[in-house]
Amino acid sequence: MLPRFHLLTGPPTLDATSLERVLDVLRAAAAGGGPGVDAVQVRAKRAADREVVDWTRALVAATRGTTTRVIVNDRLDLALAAGADGVHLGREDLAVADARALVDPGLLIGATCRRPEHAVEARRDGADYVGVGPVHASRTKPELTCVIGQGVLAAAAREAWTIAIGGITAARVPDALAAGAHGVAVASAVWDDADPPRRAQEIAELVHAR
Fold first, then answer.
1. Has this prediction a pTM greater than 0.90?
2. Which of 117, 138, 151, 119 minimizes the C-alpha distance to 185?
3. What radius of gyration, in Å, describes the C-alpha atoms of the chain?
């Protein structure tokens, strides 16, 4: 089963405190007995390579034996070095086809898509899922001003397994799933909340209720 609830790491630094913060959220989201957070995407564009690898290894070790998968954003080399479960590739990262040619079939590969034709291309090239967005304006990536909306999300969902991203909040999860998305990816909705574990649990329940 492909991960449905993706949590992007929010802390700006990769240290023991931020690791424990992520693990607190994972434990809370699974408290209801359901799958909880299916995947954690390690997004740390400003961190040094070694820091990303060491922190990701610690996260992989901490989640071993659970259903949560660890995915590294942008960098296939760092994902492999850390023993992660997958990599998520942006539009300007290594091409999906090239990444797929380098790894075992079991490694998850996600691809960022802005239009339905991107989803067709990513599926053809071997992506397991596509992250489609920004569906709404995003506080995490304010530079992405071209909001795609529900229509593009629905069209992309007809072409590939789709994860809705960009401005996704608990209130917006039902609409994303109704549009055909397989799941959602969130960052600010959890990390900017006064109670991140509680908010993650709420989103997990909404995602897995359908």
1. yes
2. 138
3. 16
